[in-house]
Amino acid sequence: MRTAVVTHAACLGHAVMPDNPERPNRLQAVQAALADSEFSDVARFEAPRADAADVARVHDARFTAALRAHAPTVDGEFEALDWDTALASGTLEAADRGAGAAVAAVDLLMSGDADAVFCAVRPPGHHAERARAMGFCYFNNIAIAAKRALDVHGVERVAIVDIDVHHGN
Length: 169
Description:
By secondary structure, this protein is of the alpha/beta class. It is built from 5 helices and 5 strands. Helix 1 links the parallel strand 1 and strand 2 (43-46).
């Protein structure tokens, strides 16, 4: 079985407000574990930015435009979207790379270049709704990946299993 990891350094650049549990050290811990010789045969890929067409299959254009318009450009500034989700200067590049990683994972699987893919990214991407960021998520990477499989690769069905405290988004 050929396993791949898709990640990008920009995912560490997503700053969060103090006391937010979704922190860069979560991804750093994953990266440190993947650096172990046990994972030396894992193929590594750099996450591209998500293509606008892939994001548009899932998210409302007004929503994505509003995210981009309100993103701070100065390090240390935040734009709160809800009680646990805020934009910072590096957020959107990290979110674009996270969604791009999900798309790349689908493409790797569908091409046969990988049998399993792990996306080591942040912010997470499974709670965002069509026109709303939530649960630390800005884009719904899982839905974007599923729509890619359905619309681009012609997959007939996709199963999504979300085991989380507020599952079902």
